[in-house]
């Protein structure tokens, strides 16, 4: 008798999303398991952001189902199981870097073994600890969003264009963070409009093509 295998961290089945009767993607199915990454590729407008927002529970698909660890996704399961890094980083313009991480950690929970200062150091922002978010460059903002994700307890990371605005060390940082997270049993789904970077881990690729109405 074979041992039952664990369900994937996330499985999407027959997902289809349309706006005003115009299909954006689908129906499509995908899964990501503990210990791997899934790269969603596609040109501008192919629907990558839309798909990742559906997976995060920020948009509702017309058809299909998303499960997390075999359970139908609910807002509660998505809030605890998923850490989402989107184009808008969800950080407060008037708060300092340290205040932003403290605020979000208190609100969303955080790993007890990762302090705010460790997170700022990890992403190369120690010198900006007391700088208000609004004064950060685009790449520094992305780094702060990565610091929030690094402290998160969620096993599944959803990263929308994580390499955008980052210099080469920043791209390497994203890859290292994903590699460590995946090696520790987590999983990551990330989007990219070009295959100019990919995490150095077991990675599956899904190619999205803009749907023609
Ligand atoms: N709020 C919106 N209202 C109407 N249409 C939208 C909205 N957001 C996106 N779209 C459309 O949905 C399609 C998919 O957009 P999406 O942002 O998911 O693409 P993408 O693959 O992430 O593109 P990019 O690589 O440029 O970020 C595009 O045709 C876009 O114009």
Rg (C-alpha, Å): 17 Å
| Helical amount | 25-40%
CATH class, named Alpha Beta
Biggest sheet architecture = 5 strands, parallel
Mean pLDDT: 90
Beta-strand content estimate: 15-25%
Query: Structural class of the secondary elements?
Result: alpha/beta
Largest beta sheet: strand ordering: 6-7-8-3-9
CATH level 4 superfamily: P-loop containing nucleotide triphosphate hydrolases
* pLDDT < 50 runs, ≥5 residues: none
| Overall 3D shape | globular
How many DSSP E strands? 9
Terminal residue distance: 48 Å
CATH architecture designation = 3-Layer(aba) Sandwich
Helical element count?
6
GO molecular function: ATP binding
Domain ABC transporter: 10-213
Pfam families: ABC_tran (PF00005)
Protein name: Heme ABC exporter ATP-binding protein CcmA
What structural keywords apply?
213 residues; alpha/beta; Rossmann fold; binds adenosine-5'-triphosphate
Structure description:
By secondary structure, this protein is an alpha/beta fold. The protein has one domain (10-207): P-loop containing nucleotide triphosphate hydrolases (Rossmann fold, 3-Layer(aba) Sandwich). The chain is 31% helix and 25% strand. Strands 6-7-8-3-9 form a 5-stranded parallel β-sheet, sandwiched between helices. The longest helix has 16 residues, at 168-183. The mean pLDDT is 90. Adenosine-5'-triphosphate (ATP) binds at residues 19, 24, 42, 44-50, 193. Residues 19, 24, 42, 44-50, 193 line the site of adenosine-5'-triphosphate. This is Heme ABC exporter ATP-binding protein CcmA. GO terms for molecular function: ATP binding. It comes from Aquilutibacter rugosus.
């Amino acid at each position: 008798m074979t041992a039952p295998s664990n369900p994937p961290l996330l499985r999407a089945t027959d997902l289809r999303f349309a706006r005003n009767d115009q299909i954006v993607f689908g129906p499509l199915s995908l899964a990501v398991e503990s210990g791997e990454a899934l790269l969603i590729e596609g040109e501008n407008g192919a629907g990558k952001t839309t798909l990742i927002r559906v997976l995060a529970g920020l948009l509702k698909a017309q058809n299909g189902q998303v499960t997390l660890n075999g359970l139908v996704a609910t807002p509660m399961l998505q809030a605890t199981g998923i850490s989402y890094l989107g184009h808008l980083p969800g950080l407060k313009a008037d708060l300092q870097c340290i205040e932003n991480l403290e605020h979000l950690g208190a609100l969303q929970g955080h790993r007890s073994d990762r302090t705010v200062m460790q997170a700022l150091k990890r992403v190369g922002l120690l010198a900006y600890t007391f700088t208000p978010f609004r004064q950060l460059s685009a790449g520094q903002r992305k780094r702060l969003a990565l610091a929030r994700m690094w402290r998160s307890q969620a096993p599944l990371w959803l990263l929308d264009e994580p390499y955008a605005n980052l210099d080469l060390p920043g791209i390497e940082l994203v890859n290292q963070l994903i590699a460590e997270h995946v090696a520790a049993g987590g999983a990551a789904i990330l989007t990219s409009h070009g295959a100019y970077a990919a995490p150095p881990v077991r990675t599956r690729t899904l190619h999205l093509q803009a749907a023609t109405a």
